[in-house]
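Lab meeting tomorrow. Look over both lines:
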Amino acid sequence: MKTLSEFEPCSPPAGAEGEIAAEGLSVHLGYHHNPAANAELLASDGWLRTGDLGQFDPAGNVRIVGRLKEMINRGDKKFFPREIEEIFYTHPKILHAAIVGVPDPRLGERNCLCVIPRAGASLSLEEAVDFLKGDVATYKLPEELEVFAEFPFTPTGKIQRHALTREVLARREGAR
């Protein structure tokens, strides 16, 4: 374990993006009798891999930009849904928005926009795509739209993406 004085400050370039890691006495020591989970969580040098992706701003501050597990891979073009969701939160008809990747045999994944509309509002896929056009790359545009009355949330208020994706897939199966 290093002492605080042994750490060398780093100054990555602004815009640099990568997984956030932590090391220290108060950091998670690992899972009891679960070496597979520990190997995934802890790097060989003891650093805890958080799964959060951060990006440095010009002042050297880190902004969380997404989660590794949330990354969508559409035709070998990868992106994090948070970027698109933040834009949708400015849409006057959308209360909550989440983009999930759904399996596709040709592209790997397709983008599905899941929304909870504001009271009395409705939204079409065309409206959603038009709202983003010119602001985001084409491969990030939603290709499907699913409307929900509520999302599955964790106790801390985060959307449970895996549960949301399962629901989208169940709806697909039910439609067949």
